[in-house]
């Protein structure tokens, strides 16, 4: 199965396929696909805070800059999610 890049938008945390690009045949019956692939901003805001808090408490000033940059990038993507 070949999936076109246009069918795979990047969300805050991963790549989630567009619903109209999936063809699961009979496997899709009875599955709420919209709910299955729902990306809730509130969840990722809480998740980000937990990750940030963990790094702050466990690593503090010794956190490598590359990880700090990735964390900032995640925060920027979470902030772009719809409310």
Number of helices: 3
Biggest sheet, in brief?
none
- Spans of at least 5 consecutive residues whose pLDDT stays below 50 are none
| Series of secondary-structure elements, N-terminal to C-terminal | HHH
Termini separation comes to 34 Å
Cα Rg:
17 Å
Counting structural domains, the number is: 1
Give the overall average pLDDT.
81
Shape: elongated
Helical content band: 40-55%
How many E strands? 0
Helix-and-strand structural type = mainly alpha
Write structural notes for this entry:
The structure is a single chain. The chain is mostly helical. 45% of the residues lie in helices and 0% in strands. The protein has one domain. Helix 2 runs antiparallel to helix 3. The N and C termini lie far apart (34 Å).
Short recap of the structure:
It is built from 3 helices and no strands. With 83 residues, the chain is mainly alpha-helical.
């Amino acid at each position: 199965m070949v999936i076109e890049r246009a069918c795979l938008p990047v969300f805050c945390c991963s790549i989630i396929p567009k619903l109209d690009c999936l063809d699961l045949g009979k496997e899709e019956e009875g599955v709420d696909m919209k709910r299955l692939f729902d990306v809730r901003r509130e969840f990722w805001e809480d998740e980000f805070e937990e990750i940030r808090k963990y790094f702050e408490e466990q690593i503090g000033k010794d956190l490598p800059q590359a990880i700090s940059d990735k964390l900032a990038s995640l925060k920027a993507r979470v902030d772009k999610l719809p409310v």
